[in-house]
Amino acid sequence: MNEFKIKPEYSITDEQSLRGLFEATHTLAILKCQDTLGAHAQEFIRRSPFLCIGTQNLDGKADVSPRGDPVGFVKILDERTLAIPDRPGNNRLDTLVNIIANPSVGLLFIIPGFDDTLRVNGQATLVNDPELLKSMSVNDRAPKLAIVVKVSEVFMHCAKAFRRSHLWSPDHFQDRTEMPSLVKIILDETTGAPSDKDEMRKIDDDLEEDYRRTLY
Question: What does the pLDDT look like over 54-64, one tens digit per residue?
């Protein structure tokens, strides 16, 4: 595949040029942005089992990480403060290291079956308060730390992206077996996957066992 190069004359590099391509922002799209978690935002968060958190380091390197747990896993501490448990992962710690360097975060809350989403922006701190962590235990296992977010912006996001993608429509679900397993993809792109199918199947089974043992 040949490298794609952007033609300089088609590069949008300033806000005035950008906004000139679009209609004026609808008044409600401006007014809907709040600086506290209202009743509806809180209810949305209580129903959500999944969010994505966006972070950046001081050099501007961006990262987006998925976080999922039982419904209501994000604690609403007050109308401007949220706590997100940090469950066991791959220990890359990309999100956590970024927060130490640059506390600005963006959250996208998703509820299965809902086409609209909730966006929350704020400043994050890593916290290991034992009392808070104990309140976030699952299967008697507390997280090692929590991401506590002081909210600066909160607003609902419209349904267009989810409707365009048919994300929740079963007739648009894709067959996972049409692509290799997670482990095979990683091995193919790094050290090489075994050619023996039985050996590869055992590696996949070991990952499933690891999921079972280390989910919390």
Answer: 999 999 999 99
